[in-house]
Amino acid sequence: MKNYDPNIYKGVHTVKITLQKWEYKGHIIRRVCGNCKGRIVLDFDFECEDNFPDNDCQLEYHEDRDYFSCVLKDKNGNTLECSGDAEDMNDMIVGIEIIDFCEE
Fold this sequence. Notes:
Layout: E1 11-21, E2 24-34, H1 39-42, E3 54-55, E4 60-62, E5 67-73, E6 79-84, H2 86-92, E7 93-103
Antiparallel strand pairs: 1-2, 1-7, 2-3, 4-5, 5-6
């Protein structure tokens, strides 16, 4: 992102969340709308999301059994299937970054 105005009030932030386990990685892109900015936008609770349409790791939250599953990849394209609860997912988050903002 080239410019981030700290005086913004309404718009859509695009946030990239990186999951990693050993050398395997995946990314989730989520959009946060409304009157928020900075660190507040970066707070993340996967249980509040119905789905993750923009992700490269097939991340799914299984509400009926309160767990997530995903498939991470290494640089050679090898895959690692992961699943767990909210604490397990928090342990896998290695990056959260605002990558774009569009004013309403």
